[in-house]
Amino acid sequence: MIETDPSATAALAPPGTTSMAGELAEAVVDHGAIAANVRTLRATAGTRLMAVVKADAFGHGAVPVARTCLSAGASWLGVTRVGEALELRRAGITAPVLAWLFEPSRAEEAVTADVDLSVSSPGDLAAVARATGRPRLHLKLDTGLHRSGCPGEDWAGLVSAAAALESAGRVRVVGLWSHLSHGGEPDAVATHRQLLMFRVGVDLARAAGLRPEVVHLANTAAVQANSRPTAYDLVRVGAGIYGIGDGLSPALTLRTRVVQVRRVATGRGVGYDHVGRTTRDTHLALVPLGYADGLPRAATGRASVWVGGRRASLIGRVCMDQVVVDVGPEPVPVGAEVLVLGAGDRGEPTARDWARWAGTNEHEIYTGIGARVERRHVGFAAGIQRPRVGMEER
Ligand SMILES: *Cc1c(COP(=O)(O)O)cnc(C)c1O
Question: Residue 86, CB half-sphere, CA atoms under 13 Å: how many?
Fold first, then answer.
């Protein structure tokens, strides 16, 4: 027995949305939660806050999230690539923006758009200094993460080259920075080592004549660990803005609707390779989201969703575009709301649950939510600037 109702999904589509994907699923982003998280983190850090909106604000939507963060007290924005920084500038955002994985060929564009660039090597420095104008630079020291940044033995050379270029009016060194390997562990030996090395690095830069506006080190985990020695002038906060971390509010709800329901006898294989098998006479609900939309295939056999007022397990493999949910002997109606992930306050799974099921972290769950899932921005409190187009208020 199969029920289909093509109108079942229509109610989800926000006004003005015409795409098929928009009708099938949406990620609702609560800007009230984002603003509250920014305020909390800023108060905890006791210093200025850079809102890290890389990777499309962890999948939440870079431009609207950046606006909300700035309205809520962030004073800087951080992204990985120059292209991401330019997207913010094109939207009319004028706050300082730092891009830290910079493509030398795009330095000119970045400088023209008044985007700050991170520099980790004499080669980067020379490439940026060739750009017209007076590039704003943040020199990055590798204090022990061993991922990016200038190795300690090359730092003195980098700061003196930068100081010479600054004296010649070619660049401005506005920042000195590094990144922690164990941000959440202020007492770890690794953290003490990094702090010590960073202090020495900052001293060396000052001795070379540099006078940066901001020295910055901490991420969300360091702020949450209340690690005052890491706070310096500015904290770079990504995860916490989106509610990753204790005492913060998840902002994103991924929701859709049941598009088909069928009755299936016990003992039947379900989906590719019949990885799932019914263990009772039951109803199977088809949910139109799959791994292309961010539901990790690795969660197969473990995940559940909230559907029609209760939690029900997925059965069979997570497919590219859809999953099957075993709702039990009591059917749910076609068109029933499905909460795939959210803050958890209605009984739906959280990003943390999905991360556990898939053996990953919440960051990967959020950034994995596919482009065809429509983002809908809601919850703009008084004083929070709303995105301009195609967005509605709750
Ligand atoms: C992503 C990132 C951050 C933000 O870290 P969170 O743990 O998400 O707060 C800060 N600095 C750098 C260099 C990053 O890549």
Answer: 12
